[in-house]
Amino acid sequence: MKVTIITAFPDFMDSFISTSILGRAVKEGLIDISILDLRSYSQGNYRQIDDYAFGGGGMVLMAEPLQKALHHIFSTHGRGKVIFPSPQGGVMTQQTVETLSTAQHLIFICGHYEGIDERFCDQYVDLEISIGDYVLTGGEIPCMAIIDAVSRLLPGVVGKEQAVIEDSFYRGMLDHPHYTRPSSWKGIEVPEVLLSGDKKAIGKWRREQAVQRTLARRPDLLSRANIMPYLDKSAYVALVHHPVLDRKGESSTAAVTGLDIHDISRTCRTYGIKRFFIITPIKSQRDMAREIMHHWTEGYGATFNPLRGEALKLAKIIPSIEKTIAWVEEKEKVKPYVIATTAKFRSGSTHWMELKKSLLTLNKPVLFLFGTSWGLDEDVFSISDSTMQPIRGGINDYNHLSVRNAVAITMDRFFGFR
Ligand code: ADE
Fold this sequence. Notes:
It is a single chain. By secondary structure, the chain is an alpha/beta fold. Helix content is 39%, strand content 18%. It has three domains: 2-161, Alpha/beta knot; 189-225; 230-415, SPOUT methyltransferase, trefoil knot domain (Alpha/beta knot), CATH 3.40.1280. 31% of the residues are buried. Residues 85-87, 130-132, 134-136, 139, 142 line the site of adenine (ADE).
């Protein structure tokens, strides 16, 4: 990645680009940073770059020197994405940073005083970014903050890439606390588990700490977080073909479809679901489903498209919801927390965000039940621990998603990198 910074205070940046992690990245050629002194593009003996604001107020950076500096960059390196750090910009998030990290050339304009001439902004600035709702004396510090956040996402910049992945915000959760030597400082001991050498116990403790911190300090982050790495037990999905309602609202059994088997298996594999249960009491339907799965996991399909086989291996054909719950309980040694889903609003049902929050502290496996046909039978709601409120579009009188879409949307809310 190439980064060019236009600033009236070039010295300010020197140690930033030559020290620590960023300095090493520059030395190793992972990122190329140039600094341009705005005053070199000024006019007259006084090297003027700013002037009084029309209508009164403080000083404003003039359009002409900024344009000259930018044209110089364009003519030597081609066009890049022009960023103006400013408190008037959209507030930067990790998503902004991830987007910027895919650019080839970022050009930063560091403002000062009251800002820069709006005509220059209108013509050249692609993105105005604020680093928070407070005002600094200039754009250099915000510019450094943005470059720092972007550079650590570039391959090779942070030594262990896993460290980036495990970081706060990357998964949308806050980080766990950290401790170093000495193990006792002013009589305060490091949590014992960290000295145990037990990797599994340490991992569990860290996950619990991250969950507690996020719930206490930033519960707002949870809607966008992937909570799978923080669950103590696994997550399961079941597609229920019996008992479900038919179009007249009567209890019945729906037919298994190949499309559901394929698509929901793929969704489950993508979001890290442990098993996908296809529930039907009809033997011939189970045989048919088994034949489809066999083709892709062991038959010709397995060599034709191994990725599909990998997804279909998660599918398990089973006769009833009761047997599914028992299967998970046997596997996990704890009864799963069963969440029934519905397209119709039911009294006593729970918003998906509340369910997501509670899964983090339940220490139980979770089993999501999705109904085919006209939805799950009444009996299923009574044996479930919770009912999740419907996924809703903006249209009030129509809610008729395919069950495949409902599974995908739900999985993305709970287990997606969002
Ligand atoms: N310049 C001054 N304050 C700023 C802020 N909060 N974000 C970005 N640029 C700025």
